[in-house]
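Issue: ligand-bound run for iron/sulfur cluster - logging full I/O for the record.

Environment: standard queue, default settings, no custom constraints.

Inputs:
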Amino acid sequence: MPNRIGHQSENQMNCLFVVPPIYDFSAFDLWAKPYGFLSLIKMFRENGAGIFFFDFLERTGPLYSKTHEKQFGTGKYFATEVEKPPAYINVPKKYKRFGLPVEEFLEYIDKIPAPDCVFVTSGMTYWYPGVVEVLQTVRNRFPRAMIFVGGVYATLCAKHALKLPADFVFCGRDLEEFAGRFQTISGMPLRCTSGIEPDWSVYQKLSYLCVRTSTGCPFSCDYCASGLMSPHFVQRSPEQVAQEIITNADNFNVRDIVFYDDALMVNFDNHLDRIIRLLDGRKFQFHTPNGIHPRFITEKTAQVLADAGFKTIRLSFEGSDAVVSKASHLKVSMKNLENALRNLQHAGIDIKDIGIYILAGLPGQSPEDVRKTIRLLLSFGAPIKLAEYSPIPGTRLFNEVMKFMPYTDWEEPLNHNNSIFPCWDIPGKWEIINELKAELKTQV
Ligand code: SF4
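Outputs:
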């Protein structure tokens, strides 16, 4: 059992930070850590606050065994089947709660001093039932604490989040703005000193390390929330990023480094290439679960990635149909993709370690459109990954979704779940989706 007791502050405020469990049809720890939340924790620690932390998604403790561990530090979450909410009653899949049981959380909060403030982060909009579970628990146990909720769901569905049992909802990732608002609300001084570096010390053990070398994205795709979370594209100093990787990889003895960037390859020579050179030949395995624009994979950049030890590379192709082409700002041609794949293979990267993302489930896009894209790509030999579309409030495409399906309650975040293909209201929907997925399995 991990030692989760934090550090009490003698003369300052005590703060409890909580990462909620996930409620969904499926969930897998594909290098998921609350990077922005850890930066917030760092800011409070630097201001002398007592820090207490509980991550329901930490894959540690007696419930986890070797069978939960998968390649490159990824792994399965402990899960229990739960009753479906009415919105999902006709979905032919099991609905589950992923993460540590609430009893472990209760045991933890019984041992810590009553916090002055509780901070609850959030992920996908349709995962909010996990946020509700945590808010109800802490509200009951600590009735005098000020409770804040932030993160992706709180930012994108602020109106919905305001109805939850939290005192304050914070939108966005701007720590300076947060510090200002926190002071006004609480009357407690809070200086923003730490940039976006996360505080990994709240974990006893890590199987991988995540890093965000930039915030935002210079592109602006109609379906994407990147600009809503971080309106400006800003790259961090390569020296600072390299130092963050070296220090934390040494502290936790990890080799798998995961980039969280939305636009990792932009300004390659002065940014990613420089970061890699500053790592001084240390042997890491790098992963880019977010798609890279194929246009950035030249002969030279492909060789740098291969030599540095990139093991997981995802290319954003999105799709060949008119609906995707209109919504995507990337405008990736088949030629761009072919060149990128050739350059990566020529540099020594195994085609099986490259994934090609295609979008499925957009409003107006048909399953036949997706099938055609799959068939076009099959001959390349790289695994094709379906990126199932989730309508995100505040994006340009969300407005079209509301017009396209006016009878759906889009203010209910459960209806944004990509697993239910919410914008495909077609006869025989689940058979068709299963057929598409079966086509992907025909890849050798
Ligand atoms: S989909 Fe990717 S490229 Fe497009 S705006 Fe979002 S992060 Fe940027």
